[in-house]
Design goal:
Number of strands: 10
Strand content: 5-15%
Largest sheet: 6 strands, mixed
CATH superfamily of the largest domain: ABC transporter type 1, transmembrane domain
CATH class of the largest domain: Mainly Alpha
Number of helices: 21
């Protein structure tokens, strides 16, 4: 069964998921309490050996104490393993409960920037790893430090005072270390994410860089960025190592002082000889969680930053879903006052666009480069949300449609083929085998779509035919024309009622364009609604209407024959031809 994104009761997916993990976390806290109680066993054993066994030379007592110690340590090991298992199960539950919602939020809507969407899953992995890591153990052990301090007071008030002051000193040191490096760590993490994105992009664009003589400049730029990042990270690590070194020094010193204090009190006969070593062990145990947390400051800071980023991302509006399954669309499209602005700008890419397309009509979008054709197609397909206005399919606004349901009846071919790094078959079938399993029905639909797109012969010519594996770089391994043909076959898969095609003939020769015209005529024959952008006039022979865009506004929307003929020219005048510009 495929994962679905359901609305969170509190409106924040992450918070609600953590509530579902509370049972495991409370159980882990309970077992942490039992583990920390058993941490006292070696101290009690030493106390009894020095106070009971040595003075009385009681071998039987020593044997019994040793058996009790052995059993207690076995139970301790089992409880500690169970505690780790509980945290691991909490981490797995977090994965099962939150990962589908986060992925659906990333893949199912255009909320947040692309960089923020890419970072969201990395932040989630950081949180999931933290939940099952040593940081959680340190956090569960930290509340028991006061218990050890209280027991130290029972040994002797001065030993308790030393344990209390030592814990406060190390806690203040841990807080100071965190405050000292927090800002620098956030800045370094942000720079690291940006540097990684820029390096990934440069690697994808390496061919262009080599051809244009940009390689040395790009390499130098990235090396300078990396050197600055390494310097910042080294400064943070040096600061943290200084605090960690001071902490270790103080812990060892304070443990030794506890031993010395115990010896002084024993000399004065205020405590027993066994209490000398028990005091040192108790103090060490009280200080250990503080030292663990200080040693984990860097991953703890990363986890805290990941939590903040992910909580903010999960608080963004959820992708629109509806519980009502609407009828299969017939193909009517109504656009009313559609306006799209450039990201983080008031500049309008599309301004007050309104038009209607009847079922079975084929509409060509034409216009100069930058007119907004690609943006309009993306808005019609639901690939981006408009700033204002409305797109309706069969009278229902796009947000009222279940995206998965509507997607099965839409064919969308973006300007870039946008093929996934898997087989040609999986790309054309839209990964349907993942949900329904492999079968002849999917194979038949894949081949039918490829034949309709004119891609079947070229796919058979690939090294493994339909099983040819594509690489990461947007369908690398195929030429531009082959990539477009496969992308068109994917758009045609399943005989969708509505198709949005962005310059499907951009890389086709005259023969390929003639096949595309036949494909569009076949779509019209089965009453599929098609909106196609083009910068070449060859496709205009297969369309019913032409919509001319310029500067994000509709200049003309009319029947093809009327547009091509134009108004009756004045005597001696020559009617201007209809032309189409580049990508919009």
């Amino acid at each position: 069964m495929s994962p679905t994104l359901s609305s969170s009761p509190s409106g924040n997916l992450l918070h609600d998921t953590l509530r579902r993990c509370r049972r495991h976390l409370w159980a882990a806290a309970l077992f942490s309490g039992l583990v920390n109680i058993l941490y006292l066993v070696p101290s009690i054993f030493m106390l009894q050996v020095y106070d009971r066994v040595v003075p009385t030379r009681g071998e039987a007592t020593l044997l019994l104490l040793t058996l009790i110690l052995g059993v207690s340590l076995v139970v301790f090991a089992v409880l500690d393993a169970v505690r780790m298992r509980l945290l691991l199960r909490a981490s797995m539950r977090l994965e099962r409960s939150a990962a589908p919602g986060i992925l659906m939020r990333i893949m199912g809507s255009d909320v947040g920037s692309t960089g923020r969407q890419l970072q969201a899953l990395r932040d989630f992995d950081t949180l999931r790893g933290t939940m099952a890591g040593p940081i959680m153990i340190a956090l569960f052990d930290a509340p028991w430090a006061p218990i050890y301090i209280a027991i130290s007071f029972l040994l002797h008030p001065w030993i308790g005072v030393l344990a209390l002051l030592s814990s406060l000193l190390l806690a203040v040191l841990a807080w100071a270390g965190d405050r000292t490096t927090a800002t620098a760590t956030r800045d370094a993490n942000g720079r690291a994410m940006l540097a990684n994105r820029e390096q990934d992009f440069s690697i994808r664009m390496a061919e262009v860089a080599r051809v244009l003589g940009m390689r040395n400049a790009l390499v130098t730029r990235h090396l300078l960025e990396r050197a600055d990042l390494v310097r910042r990270q080294a400064d943070i690590a040096a600061t943290q190592s200084r605090f960690l070194g001071i902490t270790k020094f103080l812990r060892l010193l304070l443990q030794s002082l506890a031993l010395a204090l115990g010896a002084l009190l024993a000399i004065r006969q205020e405590i027993s000889g066994g209490a000398i070593f028990a005091a040192s062990l108790l103090l060490g145990r009280a200080l250990q969680p503080v030292e663990q947390i200080l040693g984990a400051l860097k991953p703890l800071a990363s986890a805290r930053q990941a939590w903040g980023n992910l909580a903010a991302f999960c608080a963004l509006p959820e992708p629109g879903t509806t519980a009502t399954k609407l009828p299969v669309p017939e193909g009517r499209i109504d656009v009313r006052a559609l306006t799209v602005r450039a990201p983080d700008s008031d500049r309008e890419i599309l301004s007050d666009i309104s038009f209607s397309v009847e079922p079975g009509q084929v509409v060509a979008l034409v216009g100069p480069s930058g007119a907004g054709k690609s943006t309009l197609l993306r808005a019609l397909a639901g690939a981006l949300s408009p700033d204002s206005g409305d797109v309706r399919i069969d009278g229902a606004s796009l947000p009222d449609w279940n995206p998965e349901q509507l997607g099965h009846h839409l064919g969308y071919m973006p300007q870039s083929p946008s093929l996934f790094p898997t087989t040609v078959h999986a790309n054309i079938s839209r990964f349907q085998a993942v949900l329904a399993g492999d079968g002849p029905d999917i194979d038949d639909r894949v081949v039918a779509a490829a034949m309709q797109a004119g891609a079947h012969p070229l796919i058979l010519g690939l090294p493994a035919g339909y099983g040819t594996m594509l690489t990461m770089a947007d369908g690398a391994g195929l030429s531009a024309g082959q990539g477009q043909a496969v992308a068109l076959a994917r758009a045609l898969y399943g005989d969708p009622a509505i198709l949005f095609l962005d310059e499907p003939n951009a890389h086709l020769d005259s023969e390929g364009e003639a096949r595309l015209v036949q494909t569009i005529e076949a779509l019209r024959a089965r009453r599929a609604t098609v909106v196609v952008s083009t910068h070449r006039t060859g496709l205009l022979q297969a369309v019913d209407k032409i919509l001319l865009l310029k500067d994000g506004r509709i200049q003309l929307f009319d029947d093809r024959d009327r547009v091509i003929r134009g108004p009756a020219p004045a005597q001696g005048a020559v009617p201007p031809p209809v032309t189409a510009g580049g990508a919009g």
